[in-house]
Amino acid sequence: MPDIIYLDHAATSWPKPPDVEAHMLRCLRELFANAGRSAHHAALESARLLFGVRTRLATLFGAPNPAHVVFTRGATESINLVLKGFLRQGDRVAVSPLEHNAVMRPLARLTREHGIVVDTLPADPLGRVDVGSLAGLDGRYRLVVVAHGSNVNGLVQDIGAIARALPTTPILLDAAQTAGVVPINVAVDRIAFLACSAHKGLLGPTGVGACVLSPDLDVAPLIEGGTGSQSESTDQPDFAPDRYEAGTLNLHGIAGLGGSLAHIERHGLLGDTKRRLTTRLLDGLADIPGIRTVSPTDGTALVASFTLAGTPPDRVALALERHHGVLCRPGLHCAPAAHRHLGTLPQGTVRLSPGFGNSEADVDHAVRAVHAIATTQH
Q1: CB neighbours of 308 closer than 8 A, spacing ≥ 6?
Q2: Residue 187: which CATH number?
Q3: Concatenated DSSP letters for 299-336?
Q4: Is the pTM value of this prediction over 0.90?
Q5: Could you tell me the pLDDT band of residue 146, with boundaries at 50, 70 and 90?
Q6: Which residue segment(s) compose the domain that 296 sits in?
Q7: 222 and 155 share a domain?
Q8: CA 224 to CA 235: how far, in whole Å?
Q9: CA distance linking residue 258 with residue 25, whole number of Å
Q10: Are residues 105 and 145 in the same domain?
């Protein structure tokens, strides 16, 4: 592979820690049986792997009961599970203004087909929810959905403060951008539901995710089928995790997630590194004529998102790759609601998102590259 600087970690992390490959290879070579489908030792070894990774996720997220950490294909499936399994006809839902289409598209369908009403929480120009304005809203909504970290501008919401302002309202936390990056404790912050993917800040493989479900709230399963339990009944088991894990799980991907969790347990969360590198990016971009950044500049942002006056984001990204070896993402980032709030519709932004394996030299090169493009274009 030619020399590149990969600054697209908000889309997926690369490279992966060596533990990911090692755990997946072990699974491919040694764990050949389907967990929960047989009683022989090989099936039990696969089941032990699932239990181990489930338990590590519960520990990472402060979930009291690992049984209520269920495996999915990613954050999108986890979000769909909660929205379609928890909401009922005519319910009212509130969202932050920075939500991803993984939230907004299911809600749009539920609005059309089940009369769900969706409101947007008040927020400042960067999309930070105005916690002070939430007084009096508790009990108005069946569910509040919050993107913990915006994939557009890297803003991290104060989920603890939001939860304290809405003490009786269940909260679904979209942690796609923050799992493995910042501390999360669902018990302390009274988060009813958490959705995440393995392949971003958790540094694992694609096609795997998790959903943490409150044991006190009923969520219908998204799909039904074989679980290896209560096989005498045509009804889906009524206990977690079996109720939500019909069919054969992605054992090899979950093994890779186990490897990435082992790496995180040894080396810690990525937040400090991501914030430091992102701040360095934003500081450098601020000195370039024609650049408008839409990310927080107070040292808390997880990505650097910007526009260049007179140049569409896709042209900037193409020039960054072709002439400078910098890989990033332009456009709407599957979150038009966020861009509407930030005033960056219809073209979107250029997003530089550092992560595992990046250095200060990488971000300095990217800043010089943007400066060169801005100078050439103007």
Answers
A1: 290, 291, 316, 350, 370, 373, 374, 377
A2: 3.40.640.10
A3: S--SSEEEEETTB-HHHHHHHHHHHH-EE-EEE-TT-H
A4: yes
A5: very high
A6: 5-15+269-377
A7: yes
A8: 8
A9: 12
A10: yes
Q: Over 146-172, what HEC string results?
A: EECECCCCCCECCHHHHHHHCCCCCEE
Please tell me what DSSP assigns to residue 193.
Answer: E
Nearest-CA neighbor of 302 among 132, 129, 147, 77? 147
Distance of CA 104 to the CA centre of its chain: 15
Place of tokens 């009274």: 190
**Residue 38: per-residue pLDDT:** 81
Q: What is the pLDDT of residues 236-271, one digit of tens each?
A: 889 899 899 999 999 999 999 999 999 999 999 999
| Residue pLDDT, tens place only, 267-324 | 999 999 999 999 999 999 999 999 999 999 999 999 999 999 999 999 999 999 999 9
Are 234 and 361 within one domain? Answer: no
From 200, 235, 267, give the residue that closes a domain: 267
**Averaged pLDDT score across all residues of the chain:** 96
Contact 257, 208 (CB under 8 A): yes
Write out pLDDT tens, residues 53-104: 999 999 999 999 999 999 999 999 999 999 999 999 999 999 999 999 999 9
Provide CB contacts within 8 A for 85, sequence distance 6+. Answer: 219, 220, 221, 222
**Which among 243, 267, 291 is the end of a domain?**
267
* Tokens coding 370: 């943007």
Tally the residues of the chain. Answer: 378
Q: Give the Cα separation of 355 and 224 in Å (integer).
A: 37
Say whether both 282 and 350 belong to one domain.
yes
287 shares a domain with 355: yes
> Within this chain, do residues 342 and 248 fall inside the same structural domain, yes or no?
no
For the chain, what percent of residues have pLDDT higher than 90?
90
Give dist(CA 300, CA 95) in Å, integer: 21
Dist. CA 235–CA 21, nearest whole Å: 38
For residue 338, give the nearest of 329, 349, 330 by alpha carbon: 349
Amino acid at 100: H
Query: What does the pLDDT read at residue 1?
Result: 42
